[in-house]
Amino acid sequence: MRSRTEALLRLQAVVTTPLALVFAVAAFARSSQKQKFSEIDVERINIVEPDGKLRMVIANRSRSIGPIFKGKPFGYPGGTRPGLIFFNDEGTENGGLIFNGKTEDGKFRALGHLSFDQYNQDQVLYMQYVDNNGKRRMGLTIADRADVPIVEYLDRREAVNKMPDGPAKTAALEELRAPVDGVPRFAQRVYVGRDTSKAAVVNLGDRLGRTRLRLLVDSLNVPRIEFLDENGQVVHRVPER
User: Which of 34, 168, 205, 210 is deepest in the core (most CB within 10 A)?
Assistant: First the structure.
């Protein structure tokens, strides 16, 4: 009786094991195939490479991702940037599309922002709409940044912020803000948009980020061209008055 039972168990194992493998392979094949949905509700979608590196994250506010440098979080935690964040081949954030807007205590704030980052740095090309209860500006910005990895700068800033107040901390902060090899840490070179004074403007800046040429039509519909010196003073205007 015992040998008969053992024989039946062996036969069952011989039959069921290949069947289990077939079902597993079939399930994997189905999961690898393209799926079609008419509608889907989701809080976050991660687009990843075969090795798991992030290439894009689409998320609501609570599940939005914080900054990532070569696969490691830095700066501040997630939960503040609803929208879409891009990552480069090394898993480092290199731009995104974020947006928000709401009314509180009878006043509203709104933001729309599409940006592209310099390699291992912050945004250098971005379109932005910022609205603080009707005081709004919107436009395209092109900027220069020093070739210093953003995580290196943030680590230094955190160390300086922990220093006790005094001359040493003041000097360290000034050094932190100083240009790197003559290149500012941030310099706005081009801005095309509408500013908070309701003027349509084109600002062209020098390598230090100082506006030197301005083309505008102001809120009274008056057009003019202004040339500025390095201190921001208008040295020539067309028309002169």
Answer: 205
* Number of domains making up the chain: 2
Is residue 66 one of the residues assigned to a domain?
no
CB contact set of 207 (below 8 Å; sequence gap of 6+): 144, 183, 184, 187, 189
**Pair (130, 204) in one structural domain:** yes
Contact between residue 191 and residue 139 where contact means Cβ atoms under 8 Å apart? yes
CATH code of the domain covering residue 173: 3.90.930
**Phi and psi, residue 144, nearest 5°:** -110, 150
What kind and span of H or E run contains 140?
strand 135-144
Kindly report, residue by residue over 183-229, the tens digit of the pLDDT.
Answer: 899 999 999 999 999 999 999 999 999 999 999 999 999 999 999 99
Rounded to whole angstroms, the maximal C-alpha distance in the chain is: 113
Q: 111-154: per-residue pLDDT in tens? A: 999 999 999 999 999 999 999 999 999 999 999 999 999 999 99
Helix (H, G, I), strand (E, B) or coil at 186: coil
Residue 161 located in a structural domain: yes
Amino acid at 236: H
Structural domain boundaries, residue 17: 1-31
SS3 category, 52: coil
Question: Do 8 and 124 share a structural domain?
Answer: no
Same domain, 95 and 212: yes
Q: Residue 229 in 3-state DSSP?
A: coil
* Contact present, 213 and 226 (Cβ < 8 Å): yes
Q: Output the CA torsion 95→97→103→104 (10° steps).
A: -30
For residue 135, what are the β-bridge partners? 132
